[in-house]
Write a structure and sequence with these properties.
Blueprint (H helix, E strand, L loop, with lengths): L1 E12 L2 E13 L4 E5 L6 H8 L7 E6 L2 E2 L5 H11 E5 L10 H11 L6 H9 L15 H13 L5 E5 L7 H16 L3 E6 L2 H4 L4 E6 L2 E2 L1
Parallel strand pairs: 3-8, 3-9, 6-7, 7-8
Antiparallel strand pairs: 1-2, 1-4, 4-5, 9-10
Helix pairs in contact: 3-4, 3-5, 4-5, 5-6
Bound molecules: adenosine-5'-diphosphate (ADP) and magnesium ion.
Magnesium ion binds next to helix 1.
Length: 216
């Protein structure tokens, strides 16, 4: 279970204080797939980063299966994040000098773990067999996003955080990525998809709106 309790996040820009997230609470149970719609600048990315352990809120707590994410020290939090949380971004964030299979396996390599059959399984699942030795620059946007999704699912996380993941994709690949999010939630995972795209949001079980850091 994910429990976001009264989180607030400020940014200081010169003398201006920006409230990116404003006293936001949200509880999601296993298998829930929620879409959060919001205009550019409404706080979507700040919210996902905060939930995912990448950005400490100024107020409030994030509980994942009763663990208070920000009470863990930096190393513990990094390990927790790697195992429990999958991130997918609009800009893919692939490592440019690694191949598709190396990008998917990167979290294993970083942990000095053996590359087992899981990587091949994901390559197969996302239709990347013919591309596994390609570099990101040799891929289409859809192939890049499928690679990023495979990497995010490597450790069977509990939560998948998807930031405008269909923003750079054609309709076919958007459908495929959204179907994968659905499948992940059908298997018990929690999905938060943030988007300004109405049709992408409609794939979720529930849609909420964020505006000026306030969720409704
Ligand atoms: N690092 C930062 N420094 C200052 N302001 C920021 C920073 N990141 C985001 N913001 C501001 O916080 C607000 C929310 O941003 P963001 O979470 O990126 O929104 P979204 O993802 O919905 O576009 C915006 O007003 C944005 O300009
Ligand atoms: Mg954003």
């Amino acid at each position: 279970m994910l429990k976001v309790e009264n989180i607030t996040k400020f940014y200081q820009k010169g003398s201006t204080k920006i409230t990116a997230i404003n006293d936001l609470s949200l509880t999601l149970n296993k298998g829930e797939f929620i879409a959060i719609k919001g205009e550019s600048g409404s706080g979507k990315t700040s919210l996902l980063h905060t939930i995912g352990g990448l950005l400490r809120p100024d107020e409030g707590t994030i509980l994942i299966n009763k663990h208070d994410v920000y009470s863990l020290n930096k190393n513990e939090r990094a390990a927790f994040r790697a195992e429990q949380i999958g991130f997918v971004f609009q800009q893919f964030h692939l490592i440019p000098y690694l191949t598709v299979s190396e990008n998917i396996a990167a979290p294993l390599i970083a942990k000095k773990l053996k590359i087992g059959s899981r990587v091949d399984e994901l390559i197969e699942k996302f239709g990347l067999s013919e591309r596994k030795n390609h570099l990101p620059k040799e891929l289409s946007a859809g192939e890049k996003q499928r690679t990023a999704l495979a990497r995010a699912l490597l450790f069977n996380p509990q939560i998948l955080l998807a930031d405008e993941v269909t923003g750079n994709l054609d309709p076919g690949n958007s459908e495929l990525v959204l179907d994968s999010l659905r499948e992940f939630s059908d298997n018990g995972g929690i999905v938060i998809l943030v988007t300004h795209d109405e049709s992408a949001a409609s794939k979720a079980d529930k849609t909420m709106t964020i505006s000026n850091g306030i969720l409704s």
